[in-house]
Amino acid sequence: MAGFDWVQFRALFGAIRKGEERADNGMGKSGGTSGTSRIVSLVFSFGMIAAMLLVGGLKLGQMGASVLTAFELSVVTLVAISLTMGFYTAVSSLFFSGDIAFYLALPVGGTTIVWAKLANYMAGMMAVDLAVLPLSLGVLAGRGEGPLAWVVVVLAFLLCCVAVNVALVLVALPIVRFSKLVADKDRFARVFGLVSTVFALAIVLAATLGAYDGAGSVDAAAMASMVGGIASAPVARVAFCLLCPPLALGGLTFGAGSASLLGVLGMAALTACYVALLSVLSGRWYFDAVRGMAGGSVTSSHGRYEAAELAQAVGSRSQFKAFFSVGVAQLVRVPAFFNQFVLTMWLLPAIMAFSGMTGAVGSSEGASFDEICALAATMTLDGTSGFALLFVTALLAFFCCLLSYTFMRSVSMDGRDFFLFRTMPCDFGSYLMAKFAALTLVGRGPVVVLLLVAFLVLGLPPVTILAMLAFFVLATATCDLLALIIGARRPNLGWASESELSSSGEAFVLLLLSLVLSLLVMALPLACAIVPLVLGLDAGALPILGALVLLVIEFLAIRAYACGPATRWLATIEP
Questions:
Q1: Of the candidates 79, 354, 345, 84, which has an alpha carbon nearest to the alpha carbon of residue 195?
Q2: Distance CA 229, CA 522 (A)
Q3: Beta bridge partners of 212
Q4: In terms of C-beta density within 10 A (0-12 exposed, 13-18 middle, 19 or more buried), how is residue 22 classed?
């Protein structure tokens, strides 16, 4: 029962892949995107990330980074991504997914099940993992290495991808089997969300401080020193080698100045040992770990409400207030939603602001904080510096709008509970606007507060602060509301676990769509503000005020659509 059967593996793996591709969205339709659109979105997203890393690798190679440094940098990046993104996804896929109860009833061994689920998980993560490879390839191109080095680096990195994913499951398996932490999914999600957030911020801090030189630009020597220090520190070295055994043979493979196939064979042997160990442990522990979890309360989040809260919920109040309170509680109390949707909206602006400030300080050539504040005090709306500040604010708003895809999931968060609203005299205009207000308050609100604090600390003029905040709020709100309407056209209401919604394969498509929405929303207002400056026209503060007026018009038009035609579509949704 615990052994591995190749025939069963092929059948089970095929069933899992087809089940995900044709999952019911709760309305009798497929909840995922078509195969063609999924492939196109993956290729586009992979290409953008790979191109940026390839350019960075080329610069490092031309500036003298060694092949060993490139390999270690790629592996460290791979491990960091796997710890922050892959671990929770692996646990959710292998232990929390709703289809496990069905597989447990089949005469299939635990080893076969875990390898079928692991192969499905690795197929999804491979696009993310392989996007890191161009970093090493860029270094090889910058150094002018021969074909053997390219082959060895590619093979070594592929082995590292397999080893890291297997290592994550080896870590997760005993935790799920013996720890009480995972017995409560909400508690596990909260703890992991906190740990991953702190870990992500630590990575950004180390990378930003370690990669900049005194002139505010990336320096190969600084990057090599940072990666070498991380990879060679005793404790970190042991941790990295346990999570990625092939890294232990990086010196043997690349340290002699030329690539060695002997080192690759050693890496393959270490990876095979991890694969064999996982096969043994999964045969012994996997069934015991998931038998009591599948289909139970652990596979879905649950919340507790006090009597006073229930009394308030059923009291007399407007539908907007009722839906708004439910939406806020949903985002704050369900850890899977909080980690995936709220924390993401907080972290990206914080990371961008920290990286930008570090680069600005590094390139300021000794300018004091008082001098920077004195310059900020001169940034009025009718000057060139005001347009520069508007451009920076628009850039921040643009990157924040890339996360508007979270609003596309607002209706889907209700799942099959949405159909309960269909049995009541529900005002879907209030429903949509409450969804928008809840996620805006929880996700965007702290970012606006931080932006206000930054403007006040810099000492910008009050009118300039109000104008920049208005531009940021209007731009993000318009894009977010438009994304909410698009997501409401085809919600996924048939999910059984929150991880199926937050870790869907459509994430790349939604991110791409958010990029397009951001460009559409901000193109005309920015053109209104910048074109007079380019033409040399002295219009004072009118261009910036005109940009704000255009954003107000866009927002009101989209809001009118949200409270009108969009509600008619929601009213026709049937299970």
A1: 84
A2: 43
A3: 218
A4: exposed
> Which are the contacts of 539, defined by CB distance < 8 A and separation ≥ 6?
532
Instruction: Tell me the H-state helices in 22-86.
Output: 35-62, 67-81
Q: Is residue 381 classed as helix, strand or coil in its secondary structure?
A: coil
How far is 513 from 249, CA to CA, in rounded Å? 42
The Cα 155–Cα 204 span in angstroms is: 28
Q: What are phi and psi of 407, to 5 degrees?
A: -70, -25
CA–CA distance from 460 to each of 247, 293, 380, 381, 453 (Å)? 50, 55, 8, 11, 11
Do 550 and 528 meet the contact criterion of CB atoms below 8 Å apart? Answer: yes
353: tokens are 């602001």
Both structure tokens of 158: 């592929």
29: region left, alpha or beta (phi > 0 left; psi from -120 to 50 alpha):
beta
Mean pLDDT of residues grouped by 10 in the chain (575 residues)? 72 75 49 52 64 79 79 83 74 71 72 79 76 85 85 90 88 78 64 67 59 49 60 76 88 71 88 88 74 48 52 62 84 74 75 57 56 77 80 86 83 81 76 90 89 86 91 92 86 71 58 77 87 78 89 92 80 69
Cβ-based neighbour number of residue 378 at 10 Å: 12
Instruction: Report how far Cα 345 is from the mean position of its chain's Cα atoms.
Output: 9
**Structure letter (DSSP) for residue 218:** B
Asked if residues 382 and 540 have their Cβ atoms less than 8 Å apart, the reply is yes
How far apart are alpha carbons 149 and 142 in whole angstroms?
Answer: 13
Give the dihedral sign, CA 351/354/357/358: negative
